[in-house]
Design a protein that fits this description.
about 80 residues, mainly alpha, 4 helices, about 50% helix
Length: about 80
């Protein structure tokens, strides 16, 4: 898993999802959704989950936080003169 090598949480999450798939416990969407039987779909889900987990690690957490309308956190803050 080269893309998420810098984030150990992403690597752990990838392995966890693939173990779920091999046991037959991986569902698409939620636990109520259908079980995943296609290995390509399992890999896609694993990469997606790893990406989410690696965004919450260290200096990358600030970089990938969702931003407001403009993308600039300073411009998105409410200004006191517009409150009244």
């Amino acid at each position: 898993m080269a893309g998420y090598g810098r984030a150990p949480k992403g690597t752990k999450k990838f392995k966890k999802v693939m173990r779920e798939y091999k046991k037959g416990d991986l569902h698409s969407g939620s636990r109520k959704g259908p079980k995943v039987t296609n290995p390509k779909q399992a890999v896609a889900i694993a990469y997606s989950e790893a990406k989410k987990a690696s965004r919450n690690v260290g200096k990358y957490a600030e970089k990938y936080q969702p931003k407001g309308k403009t993308g600039n956190p300073h411009k998105d803050l409410p200004c006191a003169r517009h409150w009244g």
